[in-house]
Specification:
Distance between the termini: 21 Å
GO biological process, one term: carbohydrate metabolic process
Helix content: 40-55%
EC number: 3.2.1.-
Radius of gyration: 23 Å
Shape: globular
Cofactor: Ca(2+)
Structural class: mainly alpha
InterPro entries: 6hp_glycosidase-like_sf, EDEM1/2/3, Glyco_hydro_47, Seven-hairpin_glycosidases
GO molecular function: calcium ion binding; mannosyl-oligosaccharide 1,2-alpha-mannosidase activity
Length: 580
């Protein structure tokens, strides 16, 4: 009642006010301005760079940066659909279906190709093939899905390693080169599950989902006793070549895809790993409100640095329901943006200055992404102010002749002649969604037929029955019991508040509740349909998870043991179904 009266008074007094200077009308104007930003960059690419991969926005030329197959167009497809541009979306899908081929002698990044190309094709396919999206293309005949499957099969040789953790690069025609580096990043090996999993569900071929899940298991099996993972690992020996643990560069999206894979597919194994990994991150890496990097075995401080890729974390915390620390951390991260007008790649927390050699801002979306999720969760008007400030910075500091430029030095706002495809796939997408949500949402994500999970490249992956309910027929865990005399436990109802030793995890996009102080409560139920649980089995035994002790860990055991026993306990969150 009080909220209604406040809203009524604000409306009567002149305008619906969201924040200082941001009115309901201005939210619409900002949304339209962001739409204009997208088309300035997209048209610049189409006019001056297409079909090359990316635009050089100062010289108005194109350049091939990944594989030479119209990267920016593919990365932009679902943004066109989100903006309701059916004509451009249709013509782009038709061009790609007729002209794109992957039988080319190019060695490409497995990670970047998966999140940008494979994810872009799958998202656009799911939109173009579904009448309920309002963007169905009548002449469309699954061309993008066929391309996605062809591409994924060309990427599969990268997974042929003793650990299951893939190589970082693969040749699309010849497979993995004999001289290919055996070192890959944790994010590179552990951020493939969404795209490959969706492809498995759409093609009924489990191989794609299996290899990426094995990669996650391979990484997690080599975690430290503190449940921390390092930044780089040898895919043949499983030894960590860089033992710095953090939430930013080289690790970031590993955490992200653990939670999102659970939400999208309902596979509780991902949730269990996320709980353990998140709890460890909050215990050893979180120095409220900042995050630092530590040695994965001893938790000794390595690097007091904020790097710009960390800025996705508050948004992930919103999905996990851990709102309070997300708010504090977002405030800290945005203070860096306010200080320079952009976030540098690295900001030293000891000197509170830009880290030497890390002064650039390559149009990254992570801070904007977290701003959108926090506004969606809280409806706090401060996040509209944040969005407006970011738009102003981009318009006055990064806009250039044919698009938007990298900022090579945030202290002097020096422009660089490059525009990453993710500027159109993510940066403007999250800005547009923020202001459209404030102005009264009218888009596929907020008003469409499905809930959507955003990939780490911002691609829209719908929670359709075919994708999200595929596992429901095999959720019976009783088969793990070797004792034939074991009598299955009685039916576990998700509505029973007295379920023993169960968190009653439910899949949902966003939650506003979390376990205080990350107290861990193990789950024995995914959706209330499991009838046959074996008594006494740990999650590791249920899921076949293992822990591999690497040689270097043995020498650090004595030091790490006292760290682990000095207050760290197994920590986790509940993921609830409350909608934000």
């Amino acid at each position: 009642m009080i909220a209604f009266l406040v809203t009524l008074l604000l409306t009567i007094s002149g305008a619906k006010v969201f924040a200082a200077g941001v009115t309901f009308h201005e939210a619409k104007q900002l949304r339209d301005e962001v739409s204009g930003m997208f088309y300035h960059a997209f048209n610049g690419y189409m006019d001056h760079a297409f079909p090359r991969d990316e635009l050089k926005p100062l010289s108005c030329e194109g350049e091939d940066t990944l594989g030479g197959y119209a990267l920016t167009l593919i990365d932009s497809l679902d943004t066109l659909a989100l903006l309701g541009d059916k004509d451009r979306f249709t013509s782009s899908v038709e061009w790609i279906g007729k002209n794109l081929r992957f039988d080319i002698n190019k060695t490409v990044s497995l990670f970047e190709t998966t999140i940008r190309i494979l994810g872009g094709l799958l998202s656009a396919h799911l939109i173009a093939s579904d009448y309920s999206t309002g963007m169905r293309i009548p002449s469309y005949d699954d061309e993008l899905l066929h391309l996605a499957e062809d591409l994924a099969r060309r990427l599969l040789p990268a997974f042929d390693t003793p650990t299951g953790i893939p190589y970082g690069s693969v040749n699309l025609l010849h497979g993995v080169d004999e001289n290919e580096s055996k070192i890959t990043s944790t994010a590179g090996g552990g951020t493939l599950t969404l795209e490959f999993g969706v492809l498995s569900h759409l093609t009924n071929d489990p191989i794609f989902e299996q290899v990426t899940k094995n990669a996650v298991r391979g990484i997690w099996a080599r975690r430290s006793k503190l449940n921390l993972v390092g930044a780089h690992i040898d895919v043949f020996t499983g030894e960590w070549t860089q033992k710095d643990a953090g939430i930013g560069t080289s690790i970031d999206s590993f955490y992200e895809y653990l939670l999102k894979a659970f939400i999208l597919f309902g596979d509780e194994e991902y949730l269990y790993i996320f709980q353990e990994a998140y709890g460890a991150a909050m215990h050893y890496l979180f120095h409220d409100p900042w995050y630092v990097e530590v040695n994965m075995n001893s938790a000794a401080l390595v690097w007091p640095l904020f790097n710009s890729l960390q800025a996705f974390w508050p948004g992930l915390q919103v999905l996990a329901g851990d709102i309070d620390p997300a708010i504090r951390t977002h405030n800290a991260f945005f203070s860096v943006w306010k200080r320079y007008g952009f976030t540098p790649e690295g900001f030293n927390l000891a000197s509170f200055s830009v880290q030497h050699g890390q002064k650039s801002y390559p149009l990254r979306p992570e801070l904007i992404e977290s701003t959108y999720w926090l506004y969606k969760a809280t409806r706090d008007p401060r996040y509209l102010d944040v969005g407006r400030d970011i738009v102003s910075s981009l318009q006055y500091g990064a806009r250039c002749t044919c698009g938007y430029c990298h900022i090579s030095d945030v202290e002097f706002h020096k422009q660089e002649d490059h525009m990453e495809s993710f500027f159109l796939a993510e940066t403007v997408k999250y800005l547009w969604l923020l202001f459209d949500l404030a102005a009264g949402p009218d888009n596929l994500v907020e008003n469409g037929p499905y809930k959507y999970i955003f990939s780490t490249e911002g691609h829209l992956l719908p929670m359709t029955p075919r994708i999200s309910l595929a596992r429901e027929h095999c959720s019976y865990f009783g088969a793990y019991c070797k004792n034939s005399n074991f009598r299955p436990s009685s039916y576990i109802s998700k509505d029973d508040p007295h379920t023993n030793n169960s968190s009653r995890f439910q899949r949902g996009v966003g939650s506003t509740s979390y376990v205080n102080h990350y107290g861990f409560r193990k789950s024995t139920s995914t959706s209330g349909i499991i009838k046959g649980l074996c008594p006494g089995l740990t999650h590791e035994q249920i899921y076949g998870l293992s822990y591999v002790v690497s040689p270097e860990t043995v020498h650090e055991d004595e030091h790490s043991d006292h760290v682990e026993n000095g207050g760290g306990q197994s920590q986790s969150l509940m993921v609830l179904s409350d909608s934000v």
